[in-house]
């Protein structure tokens, strides 16, 4: 069975996606992982990001199946989310 740490983000070519970090938010039959990534549209253009990608996986016989995902589309969203989480901290 594939370990959560072994999951790779789907990309047609590694030149267009770079994982900067990951955090497993929940484990079990259902798992949630936050990925910090940067992307680019062509190999010769600058990287864009960082972006937050939240992925939800279900454990299946073959390993893990991606069930849902949320991708931020603007680096400013990451800052706003961090501010909201800080404000909501008990």
Written account of the structure:
There is one protein chain. With 90 residues, this protein is α+β, with helices and mostly antiparallel strands. It has one domain (10-88). Helix content is 16%, strand content 47%. It has 1 helix and 4 strands, in the order ββββα. Strands 1-2-3-4 form a 4-stranded antiparallel beta sheet, with helices on one face. The protein is flat. The model has no long low-confidence stretch (mean pLDDT 90).
- Strand ordering within the main sheet: 1-2-3-4
Instruction: Give the averaged pLDDT, no decimals.
Output: 90
Largest sheet: 4 strands, antiparallel
> How far apart are the first and last residues' alpha carbons, in Å?
37 Å
Estimated share of beta-strand residues = over 45%
State the helicity in percent bands. Answer: 10-25%
Number of strands: 4
């Amino acid at each position: 069975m594939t370990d959560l740490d072994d999951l790779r983000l789907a990309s047609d070519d590694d030149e267009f996606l770079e994982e900067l970090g990951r955090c497993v938010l929940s484990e079990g039959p259902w798992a949630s992982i936050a990925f910090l990534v940067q992307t680019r549209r062509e190999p010769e253009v600058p990287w864009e990001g960082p972006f937050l990608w939240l992925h939800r996986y279900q454990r299946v016989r073959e390993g893990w199946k991606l069930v849902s995902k949320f991708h931020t589309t603007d680096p400013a969203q990451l800052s706003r989310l961090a501010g909201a989480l800080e404000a909501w901290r008990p």
